[in-house]
User: Fold this.
Amino acid sequence: MTHNNINITDILLSKYFSGNASEEEANAILMWKKASEANRKEFDQSYQVWQLTMTAGISKLDPDAAWNKVNARAKVTKKPTFKVQRFYSNMLKVAAVLVVSLLTWFTYDRYFSTVRYYADANIENVILEDGTNVTLNKNSWIEAPKHFRGSLRKVSMTGEAFFNVKHDASHPFIIETKNAAIKVLGTSFNVKTMPEGNINVTVATGRVAFMPHNTKEAVILSKGEYVSWNESKKELRKARSANQNYLAWKTHRFEFKENKLDSVIKAINAIYNSEIALGKEVSQLKLTARFDSLSIEQIVETLKVTFNLKAENTNTGLVLVKK
Assistant:
C-alpha cells in the first residue's frame, strides 16, 4: 500500500496510532484511508488490533506464565499432566492467555486508555468526558483519555479544531500539538496545525496561554487575538485577529469588507473544496457582503449579479469573467 510515495505498512500504522508518526506520514495515512471503503475498513481493523495488543500487552505475554497466573487464582497446585493430548493442553494455555489479557485490557480500558477521534471527509463533533466540546475540521484528529485523571486534562491533536472547553479552574486543559502546547481553564478558541509544523490559534472567548516547545516563550491571548508560530523560523507573532472568517470552515458564514475578489475566491475555495478562478480583469474588484450558510452555487450567482460577471466552464473548473 502506497500513498504519496509513502508505504502504508503495519509498522507505520502503529506509529500513527501511538502518535509518533510525522505530519507527512499522518497526512498520507488519512488520505489513503479516505481513498476507498476497503482502505477505511483495513484502517479500522488495524486500529482495533493495535488497541488490543497495546492495552492488553498480548505480544509480551508468555503462555506458561499466563497459565501460572490463572492456576494460582484457581488455587490449583499443579498443571494438568501431559497424559491429556497436547492439543488440549495448548488450548488451555491459549485460554489462560486470553483470560489474563482480558483482565488486563478491562482494567486498562476502564482507567487509563485513550480514544482517538477522526474527521475524514466530514466535519465531526466530539464531546469529551469532562463536557468539553470539540469540532474537528476535515482531515483532523484528536486523542483524549476516556477518563481524565490527575490535575491536568491533557489531549493531543493534528489538523484543525474549535474547542469550547468546560471551565474547571482546578484542572487546566492542555492541548499538545507537534510543536507547541496550549493551556486554558475554560474558553473557546480555534487551533490549526499545518504539515510543515506551523500553528495558528485564534481566541473567541476567554484567555489562552500558547507555549511553543523548546522555547521559553509563552504568550497570553484574549478574546479577538491570535498567535501564529512559524516552525522553520522559530518565530512567534501575536496580533488582533483581522480574519473575520477563521471559523467559516465550521459555520459556513463569511463576512467581507472591501476585500479583493481574488482573496474572496481563495477563502471560498478553501472551505467548499471548489476550483473557481477569476479573469484578470475582475480579480482586483472589491466586495462587501455577508454570506450566511449559502451553497457554492448561490455564492457564485451572487457574485455574477453583483459584478455583472458570467461563468465559463473550463477543464480546470469554473472561471468568472466580465460579460
The longest helix spans residues 86-111.
